[in-house]
Amino acid sequence: MLEQTEFIRNAWYVAAWDHELQAGKPLARTLLGEHVVLYRDSAGKPVALEDRCCHRAAPLSLGRVEGDCIRCMYHGLKFDANGRCVEIPAQAHVPPQAVVRAFEVCEQDHFVWIWMGEREGAHASRPPAIPWQSDAGWRWKPGYMHYRANIQLITDNLLDLSHLSYVHLATLGTPQTAQTQPEYREIEGGVEITRWDIGSAPTPLHAKAGMRGMVDRWLVFRWYPPGTFLLDAGSCPTGTGAPQGVRQDGIQFRNTSIQTPETAHTTHYFWTHARDFRLDDAALTDEIQAQMAAAFEEDRVVIEAQQEVLRTRAPGPIVGIAADAGPRMARRLIELRLAQDSAAEFA
Ligand code: FES
Ligand SMILES: [Fe+2]
Q: Most buried residue among 94, 133, 290, 307 by CB atoms closer than 10 A?
């Protein structure tokens, strides 16, 4: 499987940043190929419904939020947060089939999360925790990118950081990155990949953040299907014990990179790059954000070009290499989750 042709449904996906969902303003978003309208109820809680009125198919996102409900602004049908029509103008009886699909949503760590599968499944699990996004000891800014590529190509990219040495030489990588062997480990519900560059020059970003001389640098990536990457990255002066767990005189970052398929060929990408030092240095915050955005643009150029080749040219050979170990582990987990989805549907 080079691209995901079907998506895991029984899982939490990021639908939006919390600030994108403003009181009284419906937000239209396509997620896993489905058109969804999001809005906040009277208590500020997010609601997600199918963005299609069951009367004559007008998008509810063109409608008006009224308390906990949304009213279609074509002929005025009003729907509650469960998608039930509760009012039809000048008509006493509301037929029971006047419903639109409702989705489970929740807000956590500044994201609005949505569950696109069976609603009951949502109650048994929570979205992955991203503690640094809810902790005043870390500084970050919300990031977003729109990708013209299948989610799997982005997953592959993030799970094989050997590309840092080629795609990101000007930003995140050093020539040494691709020469070191990462360690792969299965963790509960995901994959962990650890990469150490011992005694290397600081990356351009770490140099900007103040690292001088030779450093020991770590990248510890955790990936949870369907699309959550959480990275612990940093560097300390070489030989000061960072690999043994002593982090002194160094710097550290936490990166969040979350993908939600929009369609089979486009993907939403939500990200942050948090730090726990020089918290009041707003210029540094802007600089890190700009550097990371530039680095992610470097990825986007190559991944969208790769997608274009896959989409427009005849299929050709695909040869595996050792560095594919991470993407291979991820694919196994995705296939497992897809099989679980089908089993749940069958049951
Ligand atoms: S299309 Fe929505 S009320 Fe008619
Ligand atoms: Fe990259």
A: 307
